[in-house]
Amino acid sequence: MQIHTLGPTATDSYAAAQVYNHRNWQDQAVIVKHPSFETILTDLTAYSGDQLVIPAAFKSDTLNASWGDTLRIIVPINVEQLFYDPARSTCRAPTSKCR
Description:
The radius of gyration is 14 Å and the shape is globular. The chain is built from three helices and three strands, in the order βαβαβα. Strand 1 (2-6), helix 1 and strand 2 form a beta-alpha-beta unit. 23% of the residues lie in helices and 12% in strands. The protein has helices at 12-25, 37-41, 70-73; strands at residues 2-6, 30-34, 51-52. The protein is an alpha/beta fold.
């Protein structure tokens, strides 16, 4: 199994792919680093059968996508799982609501 995400290894997306690989593939999947999400999303058919770790929202001038357009862009693929890693999350709500 291959998991495609943004590289290099210092990115939050790569860290999320590591967590996903550990939880779902017992660290047996290969994480493939890409220079941008656009390079992945413009050639999704090349990754048929693979998995993709991507943030729920990102902005892309190349894809003419604003924050929150991610699901519109990836419509041709099946979303198997959404996951949340509390160790890497940031809460933008008032402190009392962040737990």
